[in-house]
Amino acid sequence: MKQRDIKPRNAVVYNIMLLLFSLYAFPGISQKLFAQQMPAIDILKKFEAEHGASVAIVVSTADGKVLLRYNEEKRLCPASVTKLFTTAAALNVLGEDFRFTTRVYADGAIRRHTLEGSLIIRGGGDPTIDSHYIPEDSGRLQRDLVMALQQKGVERIAGRVSVDASRYGFEGVNANWLMEDVGNYYGTGVYGFNLNDNSITLYLNSYGAKPVIDSIDPAHPALNWHLILKTGKRDSVYCIVPPFSTQALITGSIPPKIRRYKLRAAMPDPALFAASMIRNKLAAYGIVAEQEAEGLYVRPDYRQADVLMNYVSLPLDTIVRITNYRSVNSYAEALKNEVELTLSQGRGSQLLSANRPYGMIDYWTKRLKYSARELDLYDGSGLSPKGRVTARAINGMLTGMKVGKNTRPSENAFLQSLPVAGEEGSVKSLLKNSRLHARLKSGSMSGVQAYAGYVQWRGQWYAVSFIANNQRENSYARKAFEQFLTKFFQ
């Protein structure tokens, strides 16, 4: 028999009943919070009405007792808040001490100072090699490789320098990303081998009649740049760099009279570029590879090869911290790839896809016991505008990350990875003059503003998930969220 809807027709009566139940069910501090529910929700309703927005929010204790919910099952785009699902899964599945490993093989014997074969660098998916976000680690792989070859007395490589980027297949760019994002540094492909955040930095000079390229770092001789640029008041420039292409387009407009306008573009073939760069680096130290460098996206046969050295990344908790603090898409996609690969072990490769994180969706739906409809993810970073999740699903993930009511950030890698509101990262301007202490991840794109994380109030942590879609200006969503938090936790 179909169950009747027992919600009273009079919304005021229903809200009073809910409040009375809440006061009975959650004594102590929570009573004060429940008393502030309606005024706080009214702030969000007013924002929705004035800006044509759709809003969802859930607030709970750190152990999952829901204190407030509004549109908690509405499917909305979370943007970069998606990274929380990815980094949380990485910590749970891989462990906070996990390190990516890049192995270097000698595919042949070493005799009379000659490697009688090729040198193969087998990528382990590490997104941090020569990364802009870890400047102190720059160049470590090349230095270690030169030292390893010198210790073996190698002065000549009869074959070639090859970089194997086949760990996750060759589809590094997600088909669900927008074309205007692909080609820019934040929309670069992520592969089994990654270098320099898979990006190239260009410096443009706009002093002349037309903007020109002043310099490129790192230099990429195989890539031809085409500029369809103009100068003007509007600063709007983007790159189109198809994967594995030798042609790149820069279009749009930049302000006039700038000598070094910085622009970061995607690297179309990181494996080939890395192989060429390493070959040149070795030559500078007197180690000459006779054949041309190559990038591989189909795994070679390693059965006759010997491991020359292992290169390991920083531990996962550090990578997760950078991912959430700096909102690094390439790091998030690399973590998604490794989680997907780990989850697919023994289950075939059907879960592994560059375009949908099926394994991660499966992991979270089983863990949270929600339907896949509430976790409709299309990538690991949130760059795809197709992603849809519910505030309830985000809250479930947050409360499952073992953040106790009195947990110190140093005791929990996930909590520590979230920037402090008013002080750090993308939430530096949020709650700037507030006495509230919060650790939050933000997510934004056109018409999307989301926040998720933890608020500390009177010595206890509370989980908060907020999504706003369809508003004309994201600044109004940020203001409404700030006002909500201030009213609720007053």
Query: In total, how many beta strands?
Result: 22
Number of individual domains: 2
Q: Any idea what the CATH architecture of the largest domain is? A: 3-Layer(aba) Sandwich
Principal-axes shape call:
globular
End-to-end Cα distance: 45 Å
How many separate helices? Answer: 12
Rg measurement, Å: 25 Å
| Alpha-beta content class | alpha+beta
Mean pLDDT: 90
Topology:
Blueprint: H1 11-25, H2 29-35, H3 37-51, E1 54-61, E2 66-70, H4 82-93, E3 101-107, E4 110-111, E5 114-115, E6 118-122, H5 140-151, E7 156-157, E8 161-164, E9 199-205, E10 212-217, E11 224-231, E12 236-240, E13 247-254, E14 261-266, H6 270-284, E15 288-289, E16 294-296, E17 306-312, H7 316-326, H8 329-344, H9 358-368, E18 375-376, E19 388-389, H10 391-399, H11 413-417, E20 437-445, E21 448-457, E22 460-469, H12 474-488
Parallel strand pairs: 5-7, 6-8, 7-15, 8-16, 11-13
Antiparallel strand pairs: 1-2, 1-22, 3-6, 3-17, 4-5, 9-10, 9-14, 12-13, 18-19, 20-21, 21-22
Helix pairs in contact: 1-2, 3-12, 4-7, 4-8, 8-9
Tags for this model:
transmembrane helix, 24% strand, D-alanyl-D-alanine carboxypeptidase dacC, 12 helices, Beta-lactam/transpept-like, D-tyrosyl-trna(Tyr) Deacylase, Chain: A, alpha+beta, transmembrane, globular, protease, five-stranded mixed sheet, 490 residues, Beta-lactamase
Describe the structure.
By secondary structure, the protein is an alpha+beta fold. It folds into two domains: 41-97 and 316-489, Beta-lactamase (3-Layer(aba) Sandwich); 101-312, D-tyrosyl-trna(Tyr) Deacylase, Chain: A (3-Layer(bba) Sandwich). Helix content is 29%, strand content 24%. It has twelve helices and 22 strands. Strands 2-1-22-21-20 form a five-stranded antiparallel sheet, sandwiched between helices. Strands 16-8-6-3-17 form a five-stranded mixed sheet. Strands 4-5-7-15 form a four-stranded mixed sheet. A hairpin with a 4-residue loop joins strand 1 and strand 2. Helix 4 packs across helix 8 (329-344) and helix 8 packs across helix 9. Mean pLDDT is 90; it is low at 1-9 and 23-28.
